[in-house]
Structure formats: C-alpha cells, structure tokens
C-alpha cells in the first residue's frame, strides 16, 4: 500500500506568497511591472550589443550574456508565480523537477558571470594596457562556456538527487517555485544527508563566486586609492559601489537561502529572498551595469534616431 501511495502522487501544489486577496492583487501588479521592466531592459541591452559595433568589447559581451540569463531566469519562475496569485497553482512532478533544473542552472550561471565581470573590471582598472590581450574574445567565450558548464553540472546534481526521493501524500510545496529545499521537505524519508549535501555544494559554489568577486574589487579599490585624481577615484568608486550593491544582493540572498537550516520559518524567509533574486535583481542589473553607461546611452540615442528616421520614411 505504501508503494502504491508513492506512485499515486504525480503533481504538486505551489502554495504561493500570501493568502490575502488585497495583497495578492498588489503583488501581482508589482511583480508584473518588474517582470516587464526586466524583459524590456535586458532585451534592449542584448539588442544594442548585437547591433552596435561600438559595443563590441569584452565587458559588453559579458553584459549581454548576463542580460540574456536574467531574462531566462525570471521567465522560468515569474509567469508561474503570477498564476498562483489567483488560481490553484499545480505543477506535475516532472514539471517541478524541470523548473528546479533551469532555476538552478540560470542562478548558478549568473553567480559565475558576476565573478567573471568582477575580474573583467579588475583587469580594465589595474591592467588597462593588457586588457584587450587578457580579455580577448576567445577568453570571454571560454569563460561564458565555463559558467554554463558549471551551472548545468550543479543543477543536474540537485535535480537528480531530488528526483530520486520518494514522495507520498503531501503535495503542498511551501514556496511559489520548485526549489530544492521545499521540495525535499515533501519526501517521505529522512533527508538530513540530502540537506547537508545541498548546503555544502551550494555553499561552496556561492562562497567561491562571492570571494573571487570581492577579491577583484579589493584589488580595484587598492589600485584606485593610489590614483591622485579625485575625479578619477570618485568615478570608479561610483561604478564599483553600484556593482557591489547587486553582488551583495544576489550572493547575500543566495547564501542565506542555501546555507541555513530548513525549517518552517526559514522557508518563509526563502520566499522573500527568492523574490529578490528572481524579480528585483534581474530588473536592476541592466540599469546599474549598462543604462548608466555613457556608451550605452549613446547607442540608445542612435537607435531612437534611426527609428524616427525610419518612421518618417515610411510615412512618406
């Protein structure tokens, strides 16, 4: 009978963020707005980098990849989350594992890309004369491929480990997405080893990425302090501080989510953390990394000007 009950379970129910109707409507509008800004902003960055020859440098190649990952990262979770504000949000077990796989693939890739971009800024600031040689196109492509390889390997580990667990009659995932910790809590067997493994592997990757990123910025700050020009120092510090806000936001929420113990209280906190790195951070990335950049603003102006000229020609 126990084995029959285990095979009978073929879907889960995602519990969402809140049961209050007024708050559901507010959060739906809030999430929809940020999701649209996320897609429009990141799609603009990718389009500009692909089309504008003046943006064919290593940093913009990396930024375009980050924007592409951000769009996918949000799209894996946000549409399903918005459904849950008004309807019972069911998902098949296979669909849940698939969402988990892509969620962790893209999240891990973003973490590695942030570390790579920190290294890119270190080379640009501390070794400007060697920048083109060190950060050549082949090197950038290899670093991006390495981030995808790391993400796929890490996510396969989580997904396969979770898919092997027996799930009995408890269908309610206490989250708005199929993340590894709340899904494992539904297993009808002892999961202490699984939880410890997830914490060790996720923690190791997060700490390594965060440490490498911070190391790059420590070298940058040390180098900048030697610059005599106050204008030059303030410009680089302004850029670095903006980047570091996103680094702390992304890695801080990730490490709090996967390094902490799994409990009812921690799962509620994980929902808030997940909103930050699936909704807020992908929207802020194009604003902080590129839309404040002079070269990108010029590229946007050229694109708008070309669009106006095209409109005039079509009107004639």
UniProtKB/TrEMBL annotation:
Protein keywords: Cell membrane, G-protein coupled receptor, Membrane, Olfaction, Receptor, Sensory transduction, Transducer, Transmembrane, Transmembrane helix
Localisation: Cell membrane
Keyword field contains NAD: no
Cellular component aspect of the GO annotation: plasma membrane
Domain G-protein coupled receptors family 1 profile: 41-289
GO molecular function: G protein-coupled receptor activity; olfactory receptor activity
Transmembrane segments: 26-50, 59-77, 97-119, 131-157, 199-220, 241-260, 272-291
Full protein name: Olfactory receptor
High-level lineage: Eukaryota, Metazoa, Chordata, Craniata, Vertebrata
